[in-house]
Amino acid sequence: MSVAVSWRTHLAAITLTLVASFLGTSTQALAAETYTEGKEYKRLAQTVATRVPEGEHEVVALFWYGCPHCYRLDPYLSAWAQKLPADVHFVHLPAVLNPSWELHARAYHAGEALGVQDKAHKLLFDHIHQEGQPMASEQALADFYADLGVDKETFKKTLYSFGVESQLRQQAAQVRAYRVMGVPAVIVDGQYLIDIGSAGGEAKVTQVIDYLLQKD
């Protein structure tokens, strides 16, 4: 073997070692990134029971369709939710912190009952925030859901169905237990609260969620 070839081989080995060392350090730095209770997230005053099997995780996103911050956060949550492991359950909760929010919560649950809410969710957000339509009446919502193939009268009846009323009662109790004062808010495992301000922006919210899921 020539001296030139030997030197090139030695140099390549050194380079690979340095690259591996750098990548290892970077990975360790990312893995070591932590968030602080009371800063990026808060612990709830009391733990609230989750609705998932023991040993699994629940992430609840509280929102209102009329909320611009909720609209900006939603794409990050949607992208994150597509990659979840089987033991992490993501749930939307249309909170009613103001009487004027109730109609949108009813529409969400009616859409679920009618099997179209997965399709309607982003479209309804867009309709309000991109097209400037407040969707503040039953008729406006019935027209919107009709475009998704739902009969208008069926939709209006479903808005006040027993199932929707039950969902509203259960979730009102859930929101009271969380003691949430505004939206958007994310609750992790019935123990931790994250909001956009504390997390440091919409893009950071899912990072804090992941940290908390791994924390326990």
TrEMBL record:
One of its GO terms (cellular component) is periplasmic space. PANTHER family: THIOL:DISULFIDE INTERCHANGE PROTEIN DSBA. One of its GO terms (molecular function) is disulfide oxidoreductase activity. It comes from the Bacteria. Residues 21-214 form the Thioredoxin domain. Keywords: Disulfide bond, Periplasm, Redox-active center, Signal. Belongs to the thioredoxin family. DsbA subfamily. Residues 1-31 form the signal peptide. Disulfide bonds join C67-C70. This is Thiol:disulfide interchange protein. It comes from Allopseudospirillum japonicum. SUPFAM superfamilies: Thioredoxin-like (SSF52833). Pfam families: DSBA. InterPro entries: DSBA-like_thioredoxin_dom, DsbA/DsbL, Thiol_disulfide_DsbA, Thioredoxin-like_sf, Thioredoxin_CS, Thioredoxin_domain. The lineage of its organism: Bacteria, Pseudomonadati, Pseudomonadota, Gammaproteobacteria, Oceanospirillales. It is found in: Periplasm.
